Amino acid sequence: MNNKSKVVVLTIIATIVAATVPVIGMLWLSRQAVIQSEHERLARYAESVVDRAEATFQNSQRALRSLSPLLLLPCSDEHIAQMRLIAVNSGAIEEMGYYESGQLKCTSWDRRAQALRRPLPELAFTTEDGIGVALAENSFVTDGPSMMALQYGAHVALVQRQRFIDVVLEDGVHVVLARNGFGLVAQYGMPVSAGMAGRALRGLGTQDFDGFFVSTVSRDGWTAAAIIDGQQVVETMTSEQRWFLPVGVLLGLGLVLLVLRVSQARLSPLADLQLAVRKKEFIVFYQPIIELATGRCIGAEALIRWRRPDGSIVRPDLFVPLAEESGLILPMTDLVIAAVVDELGDTLRADRALHVAVNVAAQDIKTGRIIDVVSQTLAGTDIRTEQLWMEATERGCMDIASARVTLARARELGHSMALDDFGTGYSNLQYLQGLPMDALKIDKSFVSTIGTGAATSAVIDHIIAMAKSLNLFIVAEGVETLAQAAYLSEHGVNFAQGWLFAKPLPADEFIDFYRSTLADYGTGPENIRVPEPGLA
């Protein structure tokens, strides 16, 4: 599967995910929001029950203790009236009783309790300040529900247990209250089973079980739980989702548009080229440079090629301009230099007269970055700097001041500098004189006019004359016929490259081609003419 197919498949998957995840996410968020809100509401109920229970307990204790300092005759009218007054004013106490010798003698109602022969309540626990507590004690005078009994000295106060959870509840909420370590005190609201109430009181914080949502709080010796049926929460959740769902749809639509935009960018030529650079999908072909006087191969121009994962080759004119415009040409140049060292290193070390020319981008000429890159790449390879030529186009040297610095520095290090595609830019003597060059390459558009009688055919003679006047070596590009080679040789052109001699070749084929020219013409140094850098 090629890169574009992968992008298409990933786009389809990402689009589906982008369309569904926000909707599902918002539904999930709405559920979590409702659940959290419900637990917070239940926790507030549980907190209010604990507050109410503690306040009722403390008020009842204060009212009960207030009887102790009174110097009243037990069970006198004044005593009974005082107990009744305290019961009425406390807001919590229903009845009060006075015990003597362990038996109930009178209550806040009357003295008839003497006939009840009722013993003191059986206490569940005693507080630190001496208040005894019984969780379930019958009324002194009625048959109503049992109450909590608080004993202090000879007096007992009875408090309705519902007073401890006397809070306002919304429909569907149930609250239960227990005294820590001593059992259930009261419950109120929506009916729940005893097992549910006990389970709610045994936990703490947020609890969800058996279809119920529960929040439990324990504080000041009390534990309170607020409970609601989960079905009621689901109904609330459905209402909330009516608001969250459109938001999820809008987010999904936005993400889909973003995915499509990103995918479109990934499918663009620039994105394709960026991926190719990152994955190093480039190879180097070598076009032999032939010495016209002897027919020997004395070097090669390294030409970058883009080989796609499917094996197809992308033409340079389809990606090099984009690479130059985007700045990707710089890492591509680095790949070419590394490939030359890796693929032709042994051959270059074996024949010091052999060279390879590398095209240098305009930005590298302007900044001089290429000098450091080449130096680092050649370090430790035993390849001489003279064996690596650099070629710059006229367009790449438009900033003559910067170009002059870079070219001069390169020549000082031993690199020969060639001006590529000459004749397509300024192409004047003053321009050439301003640049420290060793060689000039005639563009193939002029070479192709040789022998055609075209009006532009005479231009090549002027280019050759101009190069000779500056003592530059001349390389003709795009030589395709014997007539063109003969004409160039007769006019003093030193080197040529083109399909007449060989097409751009992979490294192994170039090495074979190079060796075949040596075998045909000999390898003695007297037969090899290689330009020395810095002769211009």
TrEMBL record:
Membrane topology: Multi-pass membrane protein
One of the Pfam families matching this protein, by short name: EAL
CDD domains: EAL (cd01948)
EC number annotated for this UniProt entry: 3.1.4.52
Keywords on record: c-di-GMP, Cell membrane, Hydrolase, Membrane, Transmembrane, Transmembrane helix
Membrane-traversing stretches: 7-29
GO molecular function: cyclic-guanylate-specific phosphodiesterase activity
Keyword Iron carried by entry: no
Domain EAL: 266-518
Enzyme class at the top of the EC tree: hydrolase
GO cellular component, one term: plasma membrane
Family matches, as PROSITE patterns: EAL
Catalytic activity from the UniProt record: 3',3'-c-di-GMP + H2O = 5'-phosphoguanylyl(3'->5')guanosine + H(+)
Subcellular location: Cell membrane
InterPro entries cross-referenced by the UniProt entry: CSS-motif_dom, Cyclic-di-GMP_PDE-like, EAL_dom, EAL_sf
Keyword Transmembrane helix: yes
Protein's recorded name: cyclic-guanylate-specific phosphodiesterase
Organism of provenance: Herbaspirillum aquaticum
Classification of source organism: Bacteria, Pseudomonadati, Pseudomonadota, Betaproteobacteria, Burkholderiales
